[in-house]
């Protein structure tokens, strides 16, 4: 049985993944703003450092895997917080946990991206580059220039940046070369508290009009099943891949991109 760190363990897909891993007999160190083994606010540098330190001390220096599911959806006026949590809440934690992942035998990392990376128009590439440099303030400033579109653009920019960071690092000697497998899961709309709050907000109509060929939303259980595969030996030969599970939106919008 292994030891796994799971961020966003108090709700939605992170909670489902944590429950599943615990049900299989693994040890889970959950990280979230409340109701978690490690209570930490990933929108602040201090909170991220606390999450790094606490998990390292609780896992005795060895992590068999990590699932980075903590995240914030689009929200007006929260552009800076969204990018802090969705980008640095992944990259700072993984950087800090890397030695413990390298100490395990073929550790697996699953990071939650999103199909918004390929379905959101007008995401400023400059903001993505700034996020990759860790400049969340500069990126938020550029994103706010999109005015009405700033919330979805902040979200998509954060997921683009975190996906690019993961793919670049996944193949590096310090990661793939140390036996660590970093991969991304890119869900479409999955019925969790995050999606429910979007559906009941002023942008609910827009969210509902998002085309999903499967004509239904995904469930946290389905996504946890995919995470389980990505944490298993089936992923030993999987490095820097993005697994899209979105009811067909990506195929509908970009049929010619393969
Ligand atoms: P959720 O809202 O149910 O769970 C997210 C968790 O992240 C919550 O427990 C929340 O407390 C935690 N979190 C947020 N801000 C935090 C902070 N500052 N510090 C610590 N923890 C914090 O969301 P859901 O839907 O389960 O999302 C999981 C991941 O999947 C997120 O990264 C989200 O962006 C991504 N995603 C979700 C989709 C959906 O339709 N639900 C679609 C595509 C991607």
Key structural traits:
single chain; 47% helix; globular; alpha/beta; binds 1,4-dihydronicotinamide adenine dinucleotide; 11 helices; 13% strand; oxidoreductase; 7-stranded parallel sheet
Molecular structure report:
- By secondary structure, the chain is an alpha/beta fold.
- It has one domain (about 5-245): 3-Layer(aba) Sandwich (Rossmann fold), CATH 3.40.50.720.
- The protein has eleven helices and seven strands.
- Strands 3-2-1-4-5-6-7 form a seven-stranded parallel beta sheet, with helices on both faces.
- The protein is globular and about 45 Å long.
- 1,4-dihydronicotinamide adenine dinucleotide binds next to helix 1 and helix 8.
- Keywords: Oxidoreductase.
- It comes from Gordonia caeni.
Which homologous superfamily in CATH is the superfamily?
Answer: NAD(P)-binding Rossmann-like Domain
Largest sheet: 7 strands, parallel
Share of helix among residues? 40-55%
Assign the CATH topology: Rossmann fold
Q: Helix and strand string, N-terminal first?
A: EHEEHEHEHHHHEHHHEH
Please, how many domains? 1
| Uncertain runs | none
Structural class: alpha/beta
Distance between the termini: 38 Å
**Count of strand segments:** 7
Residue-averaged pLDDT? 97
Percent of residues in beta strands:
5-15%
Supply the number of helical segments.
Answer: 11
């Amino acid at each position: 049985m292994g030891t796994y760190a799971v961020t966003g363990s108090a709700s939605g897909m992170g909670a489902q993944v944590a429950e599943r891993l615990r049900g299989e007999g693994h040890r889970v160190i959950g990280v979230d703003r409340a109701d978690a083994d490690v209570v930490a606010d990933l929108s602040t540098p201090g909170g991220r450092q606390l999450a790094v330190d606490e998990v390292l001390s609780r896992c005795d220096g060895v992590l068999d895997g990590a699932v980075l599911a903590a995240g914030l959806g689009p929200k007006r006026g929260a552009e800076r917080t969204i990018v802090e949590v969705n980008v640095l809440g992944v990259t700072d934690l993984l950087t800090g946990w890397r030695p413990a992942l390298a100490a395990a035998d073929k550790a697996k990392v699953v990071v939650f991206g999103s199909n918004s990376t390929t379905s959101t128009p007008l995401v400023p590439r400059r903001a993505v580059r700034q996020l990759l440099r860790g400049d969340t303030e500069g990126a938020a400033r550029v994103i706010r220039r999109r005015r009405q579109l700033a919330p979805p653009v902040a979200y998509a920019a954060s997921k683009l940046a975190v996906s690019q960071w993961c793919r670049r690092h996944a193949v590096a000697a310090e990661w793939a070369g140390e036996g660590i497998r970093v991969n991304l899961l890119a869900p479409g709309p999955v019925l969790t508290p995050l999606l429910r709050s979007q559906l009941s907000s002023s942008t609910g109509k827009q969210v509902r009009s998002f085309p999903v060929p499967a004509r239904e939303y995904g469930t946290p259980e389905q996504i946890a099943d995919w995470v389980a595969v990505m944490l298993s030996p089936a992923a030993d030969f999987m490095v820097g891949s993005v697994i899209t599970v979105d009811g067909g939106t990506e195929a509908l919008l970009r049929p010619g991109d393969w």
